[in-house]
# Entry
Amino acid sequence: MNLDLSIKNIADGLVGKLFSAKELTKEFLDAAKKKDKDIHAFLNFTEDIALNQAEKIDEKIAQGEKLGALAGVPCSVKDAILVEGAPCTAGSKILERYVAPYDATVVKKIKEAGAIIIGKTNMDEFGMGGSTENSAFGPTKNPHDLTRVSGGSGGGSTASVAAEECVIGLGEDTGGSIRLPSSFCGVVGLKPTYGAVSRYGVIALASSLDQVGPVAKTVEDAEILFNVIRGKDELDSTSVEYEIQDTKYKIQDLRIGIPKEYFSKGLDPDVEKVIRDAIKKLENAGAKIQEIELPHTKYALAAYYIINTSEASANLARYDGIRYGLSLQGGSSLLDTYLDARGEGLGQEVKRRIILGTYALSAGYYEAYYNKAQKVRTLLKQDFEKAFEKVDVIVGPVSPFLPFTIGERITDPLQMYLVDIYTVPVNLAGLPALSVPAGKVGNLPVGLHMIAPAFEEQRLFETGKLFEKL
Ligand code: GLN
# Structure
């Protein structure tokens, strides 16, 4: 069976009785299990949950009931997002035996819309990394070249979609973890506006930056999934409801800004060429291209890694060897119990960030580091606000490099952090941004980054759909 299916193809197939939801689910599960021997996109398959849901969809069809927007659509869920009854490890040994007692709000929503959750996908431990090599369970390989990384932290979700192990995926983006692996795997990924999607039931990395978002093969499918998961949730006080602007953008009216800071030293010339060609295509189709300035870009990475580590150090304090997951018996005191579990259960990068973050938040340093980083954050936000007075969408690269080989950057944390250079300003400013496949270098995909003002996801979808046709 051809598994290169869109959400619409599946809706048509179910209604036209080309397949039942159960048949389709089995096809995808079988294919995913086979392909995953090489790719390792999944940490767990949720076969029972999937088949159960598929039966419900088939019953609905038999009864002639109306189907939800994602009826029968095989979906992967990043392992930082809780699915009731399924293990949820966030890529960490400390949560290896933790089973989620409830559904995250986003999971509840996709289930109600009829999605079939086929498994939980691999990630860098607690979302810390850019390649999935920090997963305690081994890296996810890039489906386009198995010697290379899939990107991170959500490389499992994007590889699962790229390899047609499922049709859509739920990811989570704190500093690029949806967009970077989407670029590396050649799929579409959206980081929504901060507050657009509920974080209830999502394992926190840095709470002021984290957002759940869709991964798909087309912009249209990402849009459908986003519209299912977005909206106010009583269980997350930072979530908001807002009107979607139903404007159809004409390419002739589009003003596109190209930040000159995004084309500086360090950008791989091969990546640059693909991005410049993509911009040329938009220009030839009638879009108005102009250079813009985002002058505080150079401080973004430093500010991000202070805020990220600070918030992570606080969020990860809950993994104490008592409340969740790994619990090592035999410690002679309470402190030993904590130290043993954290020493044994957490990986090197996680420990590094807890130490850095605890330092940055400590008395005497808080003003110098955390507070200063927050001020930089405001400056970055203002850079974007100024730019959006002149342009509708900002376009540039997602990553400065092509997917690198497994092992290439893992020994040097700074080399790994550099991969986030274009993605973190968006999280710091709370904006929505999309990665859309722009082309390839050899067989390696390159994603085009599109950034819009807060709550203007629709503008990204329209621009993305226009670009896909060029
Ligand atoms: N590479 C980023 C980091 O390591 C990605 C984080 C994320 O988006 N979860 O912090």
In short: The longest strand covers residues 433-441. The pocket of glutamine is lined by residues 127-130, 153, 173-177, 205, 308, 420 (CB under 6 Å). The chain has a mean pLDDT of 96.
